[in-house]
Design brief:
By secondary structure, the chain is mainly β. The chain folds into 2 domains: 182 residues, 2-Layer Sandwich (D-amino Acid Aminotransferase, Chain A, domain 1); 112 residues, Nucleic acid-binding proteins (OB fold (Dihydrolipoamide Acetyltransferase, E2P)), CATH 2.40.50.140. It contains 4 helices and 20 strands. The strands form 4 sheets. Strands 3, 4, 5, 6, 7, 8 and 9 form a 7-stranded mixed β-sheet that branches. Strands 1, 2, 10, 11, 12 and 20 form a 6-stranded mixed β-sheet that branches. The C terminus is likely disordered.
């Protein structure tokens, strides 16, 4: 029986603090968008978010993706992105501006045959065959394949940083697809530190506009919400008004327990239902985010999925006799942006953005 929407969640990656090279891994760009599983069957398509929500109607331009795949039935993992100025933009995705593109990077099932227990390389090869059979000239820009670069994770990370991408994901060769699990088979490295937080309250600016958002994550001891700071920058007037309108529709909520002194006055508390992403410089010893900037709302995430990134200590070493792993220092000089669209299979450059040759990719 083929997989149906609502039956499977995407596989997730663990975070590591620094980029690394490893002959045991294939490296892909990490895309700044919405994680999505695409279900193709009987000439129809369904799009499912990470939290099992049907988002097909939210992206009408992607509802012809099945015509670009050489498959009667398939379940494809990837990322919904929006492109502006030759690179993906999370704010453009939120505003539904730019060119919406589905970036495919894994294949869970094909023609009723489950592939999740097959090695990464076999799933990748099958996905390439499925996408190679896409009909030419019919919305080619809607669907692209994520590039996979062997071994050179540091180089790809530097290219991703220079292009303003989110980071890279190292995927272990020979590994299975583990639905709904965060696995060490996939290791992600971000160019900047980000966190998905629940909005539990807000303050107004003197003019009545949105002044700041109070951020929280699920409490570690099971129950309640732990405040991790606030954010008051990163949105324009229109975005601030949209977020404030959304929060005003929520029922009032109680203030979280163990309330830091700076949040005891002037806050309108709301039910913890809305998730947002923020960038930050560091986490203080008492668990507060410093120098935050708002990145956007995350309707694809449930509040319970919010939290600060917990890093694995380092990338795993290569087995003896298989070469060596090298850990990089972080973002640096890299490749040149392709001004027209997603990059090519040789890394993050190449392609003219007009056909199926340009490709880009998640975790």
């Amino acid at each position: 029986m083929p997989l149906r929407p609502g039956q499977v969640r995407p596989m997730l990656a663990y975070a590591v603090p620094r980029p690394f090279d490893s002959p045991r891994h294939l490296f892909e760009p990490k895309w700044d968008g919405y994680r999505c599983l695409v279900f193709v069957e009987g000439g129809e398509i369904r799009l499912q978010s990470r939290n099992l929500r049907d988002i097909t109607a939210d992206f009408p331009s992607l509802q012809g993706l099945h015509r670009l795949m050489d498959a009667g039935q398939a379940v494809v993992d990837g990322e919904i992105t929006a492109w502006e100025g030759g690179r993906p933009s999370f704010s453009a995705l939120q505003a539904r501006t730019g060119r919406v593109v589905f970036v495919a990077f894994d294949l869970l099932e094909l023609e009723g045959s489950p592939l999740m227990e097959h090695p990464l390389e076999e799933r990748r090869a099958a996905l390439e065959r499925v996408l190679a059979g896409a009909l030419p000239g019919q919305g080619e820009r809607d669907l692209v394949l994520s590039p996979a670069v062997p071994e050179r994770g540091c180089h790809l990370f530097h290219q991703a940083a220079s292009l303003g991408l989110e980071g890279v994901v190292g995927k272990e060769r020979g590994s299975p697809y583990l639905p709904g699990q965060r696995s060490r088979h996939w290791l992600k490295v971000k160019v900047r530190r980000t966190a998905d937080c629940v909005i539990v309250g807000y303050r107004l600016a003197p003019g009545g506009e949105l002044g700041s958002l109070v951020l929280a994550v699920p409490g570690q001891e099971g129950g309640g919400w732990q405040i991790v700071g606030h954010v008051g920058t990163g949105w324009d007037r229109a975005t601030g008004a949209r977020v404030l309108s959304l929060l005003r529709l929520l029922p009032p909520g109680p203030a979280p327990a163990r309330l830091p002194p700076e949040f005891r006055r002037g806050v309108t508390w709301v039910e913890p239902r809305v998730v947002c992403s923020v960038a930050y410089l560091e986490v203080t010893r008492d668990g507060m985010l410093r120098h935050t900037s708002f990145l956007g709302l995350r309707p694809d995430l449930e509040p319970e999925a919010a939290g600060l990134e917990r890093f694995l200590p380092q990338a795993p070493p290569a087995p003896q006799g298989a070469g060596h792993s090298r850990v990089g220092r972080g973002a640096g000089e890299g490749g040149s942006p392709d001004e027209n669209g997603p990059p090519g299979e040789d890394g993050l450059r190449g392609g003219d953005g007009a056909g199926r040759e340009p490709v880009r990719g998640g975790g």
